[in-house]
């Protein structure tokens, strides 16, 4: 169940073919959940599975979707952010094309325009990948 899918690009700066989330599932407190139906022709699918760059981009876009969603709720312009650092990026398994993954980000801390986020990608409850992202938002 998506809460927002009609135009996901209203919440994130990426455009096709780099859009790596299908919709927002939940934004609550410090937690954001998104979903992605992995298409076989996805830019980051190789040998029938979503590879590391796609998983990392999916986690970053989940964090971005939260910022965009909050901005939309507050009727303010959606700010642009960028990844300043990736820490402890681990891939346990590559999800296959055709599957539906869920990605969760949780804000760990915020200092000025820097936000530390823990991110996790799951498939049917099994962790596929995880990392910590340091994200900077242009004010």
Automatic annotation (TrEMBL):
InterPro entries, per the entry: ApeP-like_dehydratase, HotDog_dom_sf
Domain of life, source organism: Bacteria
Protein name: 3-hydroxyacyl-ACP dehydratase
The organism of origin for this protein: Chitinophaga ginsengisoli
């Amino acid at each position: 169940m998506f809460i927002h899918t009609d135009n996901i690009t209203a919440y994130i700066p990426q455009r096709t073919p780099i859009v790596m989330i299908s919709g927002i599932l939940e934004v609550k407190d410090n937690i954001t959940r998104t979903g992605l139906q992995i298409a076989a022709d996805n830019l980051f699918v190789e040998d029938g599975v979503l590879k590391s760059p796609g998983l990392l981009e999916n986690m970053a876009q989940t964090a971005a979707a939260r910022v965009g969603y909050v901005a939309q709720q507050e009727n303010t312009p959606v700010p642009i952010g960028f990844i300043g650092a990736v820490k402890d990026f681990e891939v346990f398994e590559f999800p296959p094309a055709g599957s539906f993954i869920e990605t969760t980000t949780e804000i760990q801390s915020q200092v000025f325009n820097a936000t530390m986020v823990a991110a996790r990608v799951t498939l049917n409850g099994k962790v596929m990948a995880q990392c910590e992202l340091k994200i900077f938002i242009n004010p």
